[in-house]
Amino acid sequence: MLHKLIRRKSERQNQSLAERISLSKKEQIPGHIAIIMDGNGRWAKKRALPRIAGHHEGMKTVRKVTLLANELGVKVLTVYAFSTENWKRPKLEVDFLMRLPEEFLGTYLPELIEKNVRVVMMGENDTLPRHTQEAVRKAMIATKDNTGLVLNFALNYGSRAEIAHAMQTIALQVKEGKLDPSDINENLISEHLMTCDLPEPDLLIRTSGEVRLSNFMLWQLAYTEFWFTDTLWPDFDDHCLLDAVESYQSRNRRYGGLKGEEKN
């Protein structure tokens, strides 16, 4: 039995990427994939490189994953690019991270447009450096009519702050008499979040072996399937994404209830 399992694993690893993509397309593809991209610093440290080298390599991984997700038919890809807590990092690293969106979009925007990808952002935009705001704004304008995958950058984003802001907005509407407290329900709260125009994630991926959410989409992930990997983000390749998708496809999503024969 062990030999059979090893042989199957070997055959699966040797299967061409094109074959695996074809296989995945025959089954259910997660409509919205959210990724906590972790491990850039450790990737660089293993190679005796500065942390910023890991972030730069991780930028290239965002491109690869975006293109494959788009090819698979994923509708939304949300990537956790910079959290509200990341401002606590050394200034040199923060300054570099604030330049990455400009470099990423300056380099890959023509390709994203060609692939029909639409760029959006969620997070506290007003406190970002002007050059970062401008790079994202230009990309959003240039891709606003695209109808393919939505590439959603969570930039200067924190879920607790997002929820608190939604509560403040709703409370103000109640105070002004525009809402009654009895009107407040889950749908209303969702409508006041930064993701109000997006479906909730079907699959969350976190790299580098960490198994926490790090203040990321706490409301939206209520019934999301989680997939963790020890792979560092710069090493996350097409096969890793397909592993995650295939794991998702093997699960039975119940949303708190029962399905199929379990009801009998």
Question: Overview of this structure, please?
Answer:
The protein has a domain at 29-158 and 200-250: 3-Layer(aba) Sandwich (Undecaprenyl pyrophosphate synthetase). α2 (17-25) runs parallel beside α9 and α5 runs parallel beside α6 (130-143). The longest helix is centred in the middle third of the chain and has 24 residues, at 91-114. With 264 residues, the chain is α/β, with parallel strands linked by helices. A six-stranded parallel β-sheet has the order 3-4-2-1-5-6, sandwiched between helices. The protein has helices spanning 2-14, 17-25, 40-46, 51-72, 91-114, 130-143, 159-175, 186-191, 238-249; strands at 32-36, 76-83, 118-122, 150-157, 203-206, 225-228.
Content-based structural category:
alpha/beta
Number of strands: 6
Please tell me how large the radius of gyration is: 20 Å
Distance N terminus to C terminus? 33 Å
Q: Architecture of the domain at 29-158 and 200-250, according to CATH?
A: 3-Layer(aba) Sandwich
CATH class of the domain at 29-158 and 200-250: Alpha Beta
What is the number of helices?
Answer: 9
Beta percentage is: 5-15%
Shape: globular
Strand order of the largest sheet: 3-4-2-1-5-6
Q: What low-confidence regions span 5 or more consecutive residues with pLDDT below 50?
A: none
Percentage of residues assigned to helices: 40-55%
The CATH superfamily of the domain at 29-158 and 200-250 appears as: Decaprenyl diphosphate synthase-like
The main sheet comes to: 6 strands, parallel
